[in-house]
Specification:
It is built from 11 helices and 9 strands. By secondary structure, the chain is of the alpha/beta class.
Length: about 260
């Protein structure tokens, strides 16, 4: 165990359409090493019963994570980890609870600039992918209006999202994916709050959704203190490279808390 048997607390945030379940391999590795892991479901995701089409703000979508941090004792600090769209949750939470986060880790995640929107990132991702394939968009307010949610399609997930992932995990994912709420509000944060939390970015070099070029662009525009790389990882490193990802998370924790 790192840091002379020091135990860390990792809070793991999933991306669009997933849930806390997607971290099961990484969570198992970290817990076997003696650490505490909290893998949460955001509103409407995983087993959370909220209707995705009725969520219009990051505040609503982030409520489970906000409730978790509100309940944390004032002296308790965690390592907050976000994957993909979960980077927006991490950013929002850093601004609200900087005093409860030792380090924020973006795992091939959206690390947005203040003043941008979640839909801006989705557009940039879509332009890089070129085609979202059999992904389905839903229009709770009528097809003449903007979509209110989407769900990744089975073929798109298998060929683009998880091309290096074991077939058993692809099968699991296909049975558990849920609609993801689409939101338009501006992401905003400050140097006083967000800026005081150390950040690390984990680049997935074989990612076909958040292409490495896009990940490098976010890093260049909003430089974190640490950058790590994962060879051979698709957009789902918790499935395709769980051992490597767990090792990197422990490296980050040790570097921030034990130096």
């Amino acid at each position: 165990m790192a840091c002379d048997s020091k135990s860390f607390h990792f809070v793991l945030v999933h991306g669009a359409c997933f849930g806390g379940w997607c971290w099961y391999k990484v969570a198992d590795l970290l817990m076997k090493d003696g650490h505490t892991v909290s893998a949460l479901d955001m509103a409407s995701q995983g087993i959370d019963p909220t209707d995705a089409d009725h969520i219009s703000t990051i505040e609503e979508y982030n409520k489970p994570l906000t409730n978790f941090f509100t309940a944390l004792p004032s002296h308790h600090k965690v390592i907050l980890v976000g994957h993909s769209a979960g980077g927006v949750n991490v950013t929002y939470t850093m601004e609200r609870f900087p005093h409860k986060i030792d380090v924020a880790v973006f795992v091939t995640a959206v690390m947005a600039l203040s003043g941008s929107t979640a839909s801006d990132s989705l557009k940039e991702v879509s332009s890089g992918v070129g085609n979202l394939g059999d992904t389905t968009f839903f229009f709770a307010n009528g097809e003449e209006n903007k979509p209110t949610s989407f769900k990744f399609g089975k073929q798109f997930t298998q060929e683009i999202f998880m091309q290096n992932t074991p077939s058993s995990d692809i099968c699991l994912t296909d049975s558990l994916l849920k609609r993801f709420p689409l939101r338009e509000e501006v992401i905003s944060y400050s140097n006083e709050n967000y800026g005081r939390v150390p950040r690390a970015y984990v680049v997935a070099k074989d990612d076909k959704i958040l292409l490495e070029e896009f990940q490098r662009k976010m890093i260049a525009e909003n430089p974190p203190q640490m950058v790590y790389e994962m060879e051979g990882s698709d957009h789902s490193p918790f499935f395709s490279k769980p051992d490597q990802l767990a090792h990197i998370l422990l490296q980050i924790a040790s570097r921030c808390l034990c130096d």
